[in-house]
Amino acid sequence: MGSTSAQNPEYNGSARVGRRDLIKRSAALGLISVPTMSFLSACASGGGGGNGDKAKEGKKTAKNPLAVNDTAQMEFVLFDGGFGKEYAEDAVKIYEKNFPEVTVKFAATQKIQSTLQPRFNQGTPPDLIDNSGAEQMDMGVLVGKDQLADLTPLLDAPSYDDPSKKVRDTLRPGIVEMGQFDGEKVWILYYAYTVYGVWYSQKALDSLDEQYPETWDQMLAVCEKAKKKGMAGWTYAGKYPYYLPFSLYPMIGKVGGVEVLDAIDNLEPNAWKHPAVKACFEAYYELYKKGYVLKGTPGLDHIQSQTAWAQGKALFIPNGSWVENESANVIPKDFDLAVSAPTGIDSSDKMPFGTIWASGGEPFIVPAKAKNTAGGMEQLRIMLSEASSRNFTGKVKSLTAYNGGTDGITLTPGLKSGVAALDKAGQNVVNPRLQDWYVQLQKEKIGVSGLGEMMAGRLTPAEAIKKIQGFADEAAKDTSIKHYKHQ
């Protein structure tokens, strides 16, 4: 989930508006996508042993602008999640074709942290990692402990298709900034572009003779109607309740304004006690109290909850746009998949209906101590070509960070709906940063111990807010972690 920095100027003031204007224009052109996220936590050691000899620099040429050593092995570890691994394997074949004396060591796993954390600690990490999934390593910790290579050489290299353009000039709005934490260095390349929100079957909604609800009273009315027809209003990944923020956080922003989300990200005192947070927590708790949540949801993982939803057992599910591909084998052909920005409270909300969370997803990193950092960056340069981007979009129903690659591709229902949602949002796009600044806080504490307990009925909204504010205060005072703020 996934889902992504401190000095990023696009989140405040006029700079924020400028980025969103770009997003709006991209959406209007049908260029904006949908895709992945990241989940649990990790810790990275700043120490560790050496990683043996670094690969010697190769010869820099027009076709090899990063001076990759054409005989050095390159190792690539991919998160094996909703997007599968075929798109990456295809890109690896191109790398091997371009460097015929090299065989790439490629592996896909769902256990990123447990597999790779020991290697970071030993100073022997792979050259390229898709750091995503339930075992995502904590990005803030990796950056804070100087574990990642600066990707600026990649971004300033000639693009794969057009040497007159730098790689950075071919990327979607906001992608470069999202990879920054402090200053100009870029630590992460988010390969996909995710729309987070409330996903549903338009066919199911039509069968209730209803439209997507814009106010919470309307939401409750739709859920009551669904309940009478034997369908729950909502389900979610109960075992991973940090999926709930995909719709809850933008709802908080809609109700109280972006400044509420910024204060939460900044770990400001009493940020969670804002009236907008209280109103939204109480609204979600009402779903539980009125019996509108699918029975047994707290015990379901993301796949089980998505399957129940695809089978028509629940109308709405908070998720990211990777859900279309991840659930492709269970979503009926006539499902008519759709996504909407979250429902608000009422007309007193600070931001209009349509306010949505959208951002880069699927974070790729090149470890600082990798043997072949140039090779890792070159693999990313290949993946950011038009052909690789089109291959990804065609195979996994999501667009990439590359600003194009849609020619000849028929957009799927979820993709079309995501583009429409972004178009409707216009400038009203929010991007909460807790999930990448403070992974453990977001997932284990706010998600599992706070929201998960509240939605299971074991905490009241007031108790959940008090508990979560305590977690945030602890994180703010923790001198062992690096802190980030919106600038």
Automatic annotation (TrEMBL):
It comes from the Bacteria. Its main location: other. It is found in: Cell envelope. Transmembrane segments: none annotated. Gene3D superfamilies: Periplasmic binding protein-like II (3.40.190.10). One of its GO terms (cellular component) is cell envelope. PROSITE patterns: TAT. The keyword Transport applies. It holds the Pfam family SBP_bac_8. Keywords: Signal, Transport. InterPro entries: Bact_solute-bd_prot1, Chitin_NgcE, SBP, TAT_signal. PANTHER family: ARABINOSE-BINDING PROTEIN-RELATED, SN-GLYCEROL-3-PHOSPHATE-BINDING PERIPLASMIC PROTEIN UGPB. Belongs to the bacterial solute-binding protein 1 family. This is Carbohydrate ABC transporter, N-acetylglucosamine/diacetylchitobiose-binding protein. It comes from Streptomyces chartreusis.
